[in-house]
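Contributing new records

If you add data, match the layout below exactly. Sequence lines come first and carry their own label; structure lines follow with theirs. Keep one chain per record. Anything else will be rejected by the validation script.
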Amino acid sequence: MSDARATGVAEPEVGSYFVANYPPFSTWTAEAVAREALPALGALHNSRRPGLQPRRAAALKGRPTSVPLGLYLHIPFCRKRCHFCYFRVYTNKNAGEVEQYLDVLAREWDLLRQQPALSGRPIDFVYFGGGTPSFLSTQQLSSLVARLTADTPWTSAEEITFECEPGTITSAKLDLIRKVGVTRLSLGVENFDDGILELNGRAHRSPEIARSFAHARSIGFPQINIDLIAGMLGETDANWRRCIERTIALDPDSVTIYQMELPYNTTITADILKGSGQFAQQVASWDTRRRWVREAFEALEGAGYTIGSAYTAVKDPSRTKFVYRDRLWEGADLAALGVASFGYLNGVHMQNLDTWEAYTAAIEHGELPLGRAYRPNADERVIRETILQFKRGAIRPSYFAAKFGVDVHARFADAWASLRADGFLAPGADDRITLTREGLLRVDMLLQRFFLERHRGVRYT
């Protein structure tokens, strides 16, 4: 069943699909930087989760009642720009410019960590994202980590994730990545077919996947994740089956599968909208993409994996976690460094300036490089955590009662009724609201049912 029939909402051929936050980014404003973000950074952090009801804290079942603090590092460099990429990345920077950026990144941390909202707080989790963090040389990476941890060690971090493009990996670089404390290595495989990788603008090839994975396994990373994308240009049923077979043969600790989406700033989107004919192949329909993810999940379950969200399968849920995801989806603070990066501190969403020039100029003037911000109200915080946690396939109303004093059964009664009527909710107990597999496979299309009316249908980014 297509989403146009199942949900009454047409699936976008182009445009944002994946829901990463709430309220939508387009509602964040430059005016809120001075009004909300800077005062939030200048205030001592709240030691207790906002809205937590102390007498009900036991219902959180062992989760920390203080607000964890994470650190996100945006490394915006790539060897090539993928044709489906919509992130702020650069492929034309020379070694001197890369060094300049890393210096600015470290100087941003010096500015940010001195803010009262971060003062004295330990780092609970770290995420190196991009772009391509593994684009950095061993010397650049070693120097960056040394500067960032000189006054704020990461020794207490529960998880440190590092994204890698297989073609940028050497044995020496992997050894260093492990040495600096990385616990979760995420390999951006996307596909195992060299022709499809080439067609979609990926820089690596299949032999580099095998080589980098083998060395990573040999030096004992606690968790190795493989990323795949269902529905890349040129994808076929036969190729997709081979990708899943090869993934299972590698036996990674976790697998992340995204359904191909085409926001407005991708090369493929430009080709579609302009009709320039750059690409003869088409992106598969949403029905096909969902079917491929369904087939992948079924194969992974048959190989002993457990489905942990709309995008992830894990080999051993008792040992394999994704702390970065789970902490953020439960309202953790996030100090975000780098051009265009997104953070959340003391109850305020904030994003850095989104161009190289503006970002670096702000820091060189001794200013925090904030571009836009938004302070969600109490109801918007409940909506945010509801929709993000629902991406794991289920939520527990007791969590929201304990943290916010809100009965989500009643607050979202209309949304539950519509999901149940469409067959996307599974039968279950009162303290667990669960999506069916078909609901999970299209969860991002369903989440607008929880949005406030003023946020439905607005530009997301």
